[in-house]
């Protein structure tokens, strides 16, 4: 007999390419982690302390489609890599950080840019623009044992066949080990945590019916339809 007073919500999970499911605990997202993207968003690209916001675990969307969200008329694509942790802790050294990585996946950080802009102007949190239903379309997790660690490689996004975002993972201001180490100074990281890497320049709006194709060297590509 259960002591839970309502049905237990399902665990958010992402398929693993070689089989099985990865259960998700938390989703951390780094902001403005590519200099060119910082510039296009009106900010100084100089290296400063990183900052993070969160999405909800069940915002990770494995359906292959992206439902255009309510209360927005300016939704943008942001091509990213998701880092999946198999272990964690506090005050993790950058030299040890990659030992905690289970694998990587293609991911999109979809953004209600108009609502994010209103929140920024008012000095409020970004979640209304970032952490909405199905806002992180994600592909299967590729294990480190199969793809290695992704510290370089081209990342692109085509919208309806037209190249919009084009960068390299080596252009990240804060690399994966540094992100893990920094987060672990402020949070206790744990198995099931996911970190989104930030996006290169070229973000822009999508409309219903659009097809977004993200590709990263070593992870292949995936196409997400806006519905």
TrEMBL record:
Residues 27-226 form the Fumarylacetoacetase-like C-terminal domain. It holds the Pfam family FAA_hydrolase. The keyword Hydrolase applies. Keywords: Hydrolase, Metal-binding. One of its GO terms (molecular function) is metal ion binding. This is Fumarylacetoacetate hydrolase, putative. It comes from Roseobacter denitrificans (strain ATCC 33942 / OCh 114) (Erythrobacter sp. (strain OCh 114)). It comes from the Bacteria.
